[in-house]
Amino acid sequence: MSTAAAADPGRGTGRAEGAGAAAAPSGVLVVSGTGTEIGKTVTTAALAACALRAGRTVAVLKPAQTGVTGEEPGDVAEVRRLAGDGVTGAELARYPEPLAPATAARRAGLPGVGPGEIAAAAHALAERHALVLVEGAGGLLVRFDGSGSTLADAARLLDAPVLVVAAAGLGTLNATALTAEALRARGLTCRGVVIGSAPTRPGLAARCNVDEFAAEAGAPLLGAVPEGAGALPPARFHSAAPDWLAPCLGGHRPAPRGPSAARARAHAGG
Question: Is 148 left (phi over 0), alpha (psi -120 to 50) or beta?
């Protein structure tokens, strides 16, 4: 992976708006991760920014927002701040404590959010938008309600692919492999992996992991969002986002090649 984007998260190529229109994703895309605090929201904002630059209408759905109360800004507000007001935001529930949604809902005496509710909201947004991004909370199998439903259950109802956001450093390969295995066990498609916060000065593990993600996930490495990207001014974020993502996600970062990509194709049966 080239480190140029990571070295300067605000660097943009200045490519014309609409240049990625043919490649930008459409339909419903579920954005999950290997854990929490790994860059899912900033990655979601980058996906939304690329879609907007390609002339697509975009909605972001956050089924359950935890750790906020009242009118405090949550993840949807952060996506709209970074990607632009052209993004439609929707949130189904919010809970004051920063816990797994089912636990936060129970402690607050509020109902959880079931997969049917998530799927219905995503379908309604998809009727009016070219791309709907459903951002999960924590990892793929975090429980959303008292019955133990997860984001994977919602993805199955939606028949939607799942993009996995992963950490960069030591330990991430195991978490990525487990997430991909859980997707396959449920008959779900792993669209690929994006590093949610690529360090500007990667250590040995982070450098080596770049060549291993595809094989571990059985799906390609489709991008790397630089650490600190969320602190960029929105205009710089919007212009730089395509540098971080592969063409199939609306960006123009070179597609992965070489042994790792070949192993991923073999793993996926391609």
Answer: left
227 is in an annotated binding site: yes
DSSP H or E stretch at residue 75: helix 75-83
114 assigned ligand-binding residue: no
Count of domains forming the chain: 1
| Rounded-to-integer distance, Cα 124 and Cα 178, Å | 31
Q: What is the pLDDT of residue 260?
A: 55
For residue 134, give Cα distances in angstroms to 166, 180, 207, 219, 250: 16, 18, 29, 20, 17
- Asked if the structure places residue 75 within a domain, the reply is yes
| Strand-pair partners of 164 | 32, 193
Per this entry, what is the length of the chain?
270
- 189 pLDDT higher than 50: yes
Q: Which residues are catalytic?
A: 62
pLDDT grade for 172, boundaries at 50, 70 and 90: very high
Question: Which residues have C-beta within 8 Å of that of residue 70, sequence separation ≥ 6?
Answer: none
> 75 lies in which domain range?
31-257
Does residue 241 sit within a domain? yes
> Does residue 14 belong to any structural domain of this protein?
no
